[in-house]
Amino acid sequence: MAHSIRISYSACHGCVNCIKSCPTEAIRVINGSIAIIKDLCVDCGECLRACARKALGLDDDDWDLIHTHGMTEGLPDPTFFAQFGSFWLPGEAKKALAGNGIDLLTDETELAFDLSAYATAKIIDEMSYDQLPLISAYCPSVIGIIQLQFPELLSRIIPIKNPLEIAAELWRKKTKSYAPMTLFAPCPAKITLVREPIGKEPSSIQHIVSVRKVVHSLMASGVKVSRTEAPAKSEWRFPTWGIRGGETKHISKFAGRELTVIAVSGLRNTKDLLQQLELGRLRGVDFVECRTCDLGCFGGVAVPESRFLAHLRNRHIETDWNMSEKRAHELKELYEMPKLWHTREPIPSKQRLPLSSDLGEAMERMKQMKAIFAEMPHIDCGACGRPSCKAMAEDIVREQGEITDCIFKLREGISSLANQILSLADSQPHTIQKRR
What we know:
The chain is an alpha/beta fold. The protein is built from 17 helices and 11 strands. It has 3 domains: 1-59, Alpha-Beta Plaits; 63-341, no CATH class; 356-436, Orthogonal Bundle (3-methyladenine DNA Glycosylase II, Chain A, domain 3). It has helices at residues 17-21, 46-50, 63-67, 90-98, 106-126, 140-149, 163-175, 188-195, 211-220, 246-252, 267-278, 307-315, 325-335, 338-341, 359-375, 389-397, 407-426, and strands at residues 5-7, 27-30, 33-36, 56-58, 72-76, 102-104, 134-135, 181-185, 207-210, 261-265, 287-291.
């Protein structure tokens, strides 16, 4: 398993702020050094927000190296255009960046997001009442959380590739080109989406660079845009996916009936909603859109602009949801090509590493873990470098920690030892004790 978080060990001071922010308990701080359990990491980026010393960062590619090798085929995430302030319309940005050696694949991206929304609406229309609601497959971190903590919901994830992957395949199909393509990613989850695609299908994208790096580089180079004409409204359908509810709105425009949808953002809201769905409390809902970042993808850790400003800009753009006859015909033809948009394999669940490969030994270790956990203070303070007392007990059973790593158990041990020393100090050999 891969993840897209880079660790700077020299910058880590063992403050343990990161372990409390991780929703899957994937981080440990042992002997003053951070470690990430790859099988548990969902690349949500919450640890990057919590690390004040910048010991954690994005493990993306070198933009300067990519950019200096001629014309770059850039695949823009929906969040990309709201990061520049004055030029935040796809058509204008495409013209401006072309002079800077970047060919933005906006046409293919718009078509891919239209196709994804169209296919989702068709699948929802074909589902029975008991099979609904379906869950958006757009946010890779949400899929990771479902794999780890809500595996019963995996069958409800819509079986559609990420629209960014579809866009890459559409461009290659149209141009017959195998030129390297670079995704501008707003979060570590979309970096991992390329390096280790969900379902193990090979990605059509070669490089991934954070939106922040690209925007800073372009702004430093003095890229300017002069608005000469009003942009077509239709080019604003796919950027709406950057805000909470943008995907569901797009899908609703293709549905054969009025859909009941729920859109949430933020880790806590996402996990709460998934738990409600797991308990069967969302009957009557057709589709659920979840984003782990606050306010949607504009809240990703790899974007330079304030998520509030970016959200404000995008929200006030007029969007033409009416499809031309040409686009409607094109989408119908592409929908008849499921290899282009349908996932080939079901999404597998993820499990924590077993306590032992032998069932009997694993059961014995489980008993030991429960016994150790019962002795813990149960306050999950994080001073031991683990996110919870339960994780601490598990590490001890795995021989990756000692009971004295817990500061409270260490104090108990020291107190007991001190009492023994005092008792020994007051005692005398029986041979010299005086009779009373």
